[in-house]
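This section describes the prediction task in plain terms. A model, or a person checking by hand, is given the sequence of a single protein chain and must write out its three-dimensional structure as a string of tokens. No templates, partner chains or ligands are provided. The sample shown here is typical of the held-out split.
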Amino acid sequence: MKKINLDLPSQTAKYEIVIGAKILSSAGKSAQTYLGANVRRLVIVSNRKVFGLYGKTVKSSLENAGFEVFVFLMGDGEKYKNFRVLENTLRFFGEKEIKRSDAVIALGGGVVGDLAGFAAAVYLRGIAFLQIPTTLLAMIDSSVGGKTAVNTEFGKNLIGAFYQPSGVLVDVETLRTLPRRELTAGFCEAVKQGVIANRRLFDQTADFLRTYPPNNFKKHFSDKTFLKNLPTLLAAQIAFKAEIVMQDEREDTARNDAKSRKILNFGHTIGHALEKVTNYKTFKHGEAVGCGILAVGEIAKNVGIFAKDELDLLNDVVGLVGKLPTTENINIEKIIEALSYDKKSIGSSLKWILLEKIGKPKIVESKDIPAKVLQKSLTTVLKKS
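The expected answer:
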């Protein structure tokens, strides 16, 4: 078992991220530790698929620890991360007479974690919640750092709150049952974090992908070396995310340095636009980010700050994550239009995260990227069959 502490300088939160195997079966004991002795009633927010796999184990563990447990199941997928489902979740809290001394447990991927966390943030002006991510993407990214939100017709994650969990429980065993596309989506985020962190994490991620291809992931669980390397990689990825969050919790708009939380948006600007123009039905979030990584790498090369050999390496490693959805029929103009609504817009300028080299991100304003370069780069990457 590995543990990472996230301790915010503002002292608004201090919590532990635990990574290991068989963690779900001890969820009750963990809830007692991280939620405190006064919490006796819990709502598990999950979806039917995840709860069918792991709900009984988690619920039994919580009940055996003395908690009264209620279960709210939402739909599975990004399209369910919306106001209507949020309202239904809050109504359920009210019907069960959830008090400020009670808590929420998010059991699922990033959609469940984002919506359950936001519901916890706004219900009674904030109740405690625990993250139990069951997808690779949620484990290394969305469950850590306190960003919670819902999507709207005018953009992704534009309505939300910074609200830190009381703890994060990462059970690597849940990755045994993860579908191939979810693994690909998660590894896209892993590549993203590696490329903006440092060459060491990038190479560690690339070596892991070469050794343990996502297409054959389930069979790797019989390999003892894999069972050591998987938590090690997850811990390295999470430690990087925690480091960024601890020194820029709320993504300070005035910061443009290489340690700003803004750098975590690498690949997301275009990724979010792709999700929006396809009504959140075509891409898993990480898949859209994977396409965004390729496009942003091309932009960085075309504005003259990112060498072609570095771009080739980046493209090769993204290729290891698995097949991404086709983008050849998506209208480029609609993508460019969607970029104007991106939540990284500060004032009238969109902030782009580009690369000078692997491990060296650079924040660039949209005015410094000629329209022709943007159009050409998007066309080059997204129109490939």
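For orientation: Residues 345 and 355 are 19 Å apart (CA to CA).
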